[in-house]
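A quick aside before the break. I want you to see a complete sequence-to-structure record at least once, exactly as it would be stored in a machine-readable document. Don't worry about memorizing anything.
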Amino acid sequence: MIQDIYFMAAQPAHYKAQRAVFNTIFGLLFLIGSIIYYWAAYRPKVGPVGNGPNDAVIWSNFLYTMIVGGCFFTLGMVGWVVVRSVRAKNGNVSTND
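That is the input. The structure line, written in tokens, reads:
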């Protein structure tokens, strides 16, 4: 992720659309996965009463994956803007890389 930020800032002409697509999809998967994890953690389970969910662990994992997913999704969206602006400056408006 840090390498992608470096490429966008220092060498925007070398930033490829595939990276933006990868970051966007990866971010969406993280966001969806964290919601599914949160939902599955609080579903009723069969077992002893003392084996309840640990709220601190559930919330920390949920927030961590939401933040990481949000960062990747934002990086993907910013990448799309960079790719489109570089293409507009070069006069290349085609969708092929």
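Two observations worth writing down. The radius of gyration is 19 Å. The mean pLDDT is 82. We'll return to this after the break.
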